[in-house]
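Just wondering, does anyone understand these C-alpha cells?
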Amino acid sequence: MASKGKALISLVVIGAIVFVLVYLGITYTANLGKTETEISAQDAEKKLDKIYKKINVTTAQPIKGQIDLDPVSIADALPDIEKFAVTVEPTTSTYVEIFSSTEKSGSGVDGWLAEVGEAFNRSGATVNGQQVSVKIRNIASGTAADYIRSGKYVPDAFTPSNELWGEMVKASGVSAELIEKRLVGNVTGIVTTKAKYDELIEKYGALNVKTVTDAIAAGELSMGYTDPFASSTGLNFLVTALGAFDSSNLLGETAVQGFESFQANVPFIASTTLQMREAAKSGALDAFVLEYQTYVNAPDLQAGTVFTPFGVRHDSPLYALGDLPQGKKDILRAFAEYTGQAANQSLAEEKGFGGLPDYASEMEPVEGTVLIAAQKLWKEKKDAHKPIAAVFVADVSGSMNGEPLNKLKESLLQGQKYLGQDNSIGFVSYASKVEINLPIGKYDTNQQSLFVGAVNSLQAGGGTATFDGIAVAMKMLQEEMAVNPNLRPLIFVLSDGEFNEGHSLKDVRGLIQSYQIPIYTIGYNANIQALESISSINEAASINADTEDVVYKIGNLLNVQM
C-alpha cells in the first residue's frame, strides 16, 4: 500500500483521472495481448461470471449532485507557460519571444531552430542600430495555439508546423502577420506497409487521401491518425479527407457523409505523434500518419514501408502576433533571413528537413473559421456509428484518505465536463470491496447529476482490490453490450498501481484479452510499470499524471477517446 503522501499524489493521478486520457507520456508495448492466457469468448464469459461471484460487490444508493453547466475553460486548464521549456534564452534586452513547434525547437534531430537561434544570438546581429536576440519556447503547435487563442499567453511570434494553425489564430481575433512562409521544408504523409501499399495500388491505381479513405470505408485498410485538436498532422489529415469528398465545401453534406463512412472503420486515433509511433511499432496498423522529418529519423519505421505525402506542406511559417511594434517585426525578419542562410539550411537537412522538396500542397490553407468548424464536426461525428460505454474505476483505499480523496473528487468533477452526452458512463470505486456507485447509463443531465453525487459521496478506507474493480467494470460492460452490441467499451482505472487484496492481473489477463476492452490507466507518483502492464494488453494508454498540466492533457485525451 502506498504511503499517505504517495496516495495523495496518486489521487492527483486520479485527478488526472477523469480527464483521464490526454496527451502526454502515453506508452504502448509491442506484445499486445498475445499470451498463452488468452481464452475463447465462451470461456471468458464463464470465467468472468465465476470471478464476479467471488467479489464482494455492493450497489450504492443513488444520490444526485449539483451539476456545473459552465463550459470548459481552456485558459483555466492550461498550466503556467513556464511549464514549457525555453530552449533559447535571449542575450540582449531587445528581443522577440517565439513559440516554436516541437519537431524543430527541442534537442538532437528535433533541435534545428534551437541551434540556429543560439547561433543568431551569438552572431551579434543588429536591427536599427541595436543588438538583438531571440527567445524560443518549445511548445506543440496545437497547445501554442490554445494559449494564443485563449489569450492566456501571447508571445511576439509563432512558428507552428503548418499554416493551418496561423489561420485558426486569426479566426480567434488575434492578429497574425505572416513574416515568412517557410523557415524550413517539411511535409506530412501516410506511412503504409509495403504489402498493403502494393495491394492498394493494384486495386485503386494510386495511393492518396481519397483512395485511403475509400479503402478504410470498405474495411480494406487498418489506419490510425492523430488528434486534429492537438496534432498538426491530424488537423491536416482531417481537412484533407473532408476535401477529398468535396473540395468545394468541406462542411457540406457530401463531405460529412464521406467522413462518417471512413471514420466508422478507423481503429485508432492517437493524441500525440509519440503515441502514434509506439502504436505503429506494435504492427497492429496497416498505415498511419507522420511528418517526413520524423520518418527519416526513424529507421525502424522505414523498414518495409512507403511514405506518401498529403495535404498542405509543413514548412514552419513564422507569424508576428498582436499589435507588435515595427522594431520587433524587423527582428523577426532578420531572424527569418538568418535561418535561410545556406549553412543553416544545410544543418536542417542533416536533421531530416528539406525532403520531398517538389511536393506541392494539395490545397490552399483553409480559413480558420472552417478549421474550427471541422474540429467540432470531428468531435461530433467520430463515434457516430459506434457510441462509447465507459466505466471509471477509482481507487478509494485507505491511503487515499484526506487530501488525496479531496483531489480525486475535484478532478472527477472537472473532468466530467469532457464526457459527451452521446456516450454512456458508469462509475465504480474499490478498496477491499467493490461498489457500483453508478450503473452505466446515457450521460444526459440526469446521469451527470448522479455522477456528481456519486463522486461527492466517496469515502476512503480499506485495502486495495484493483483487479476486482476491473472485473466488475468488465461485467457491467458485458451486460450493457448484450443489450447494445454496437457500443465501444472503455475502462479508465485511476490508481497508484498497487494492489494487496482480491484477484491478480494473472487472474483477469485472459479476460481482458478476450473482451478486447482498452483499459486506460492513470497514475500519479505511482507504480507506472504495473499500470502499463494493464494498459498494454489491448493497446490502451498508461499516463503518468505527475505534471502540473495534467488537467489540460487529460482534457485533450478525452477529446480523442470520448
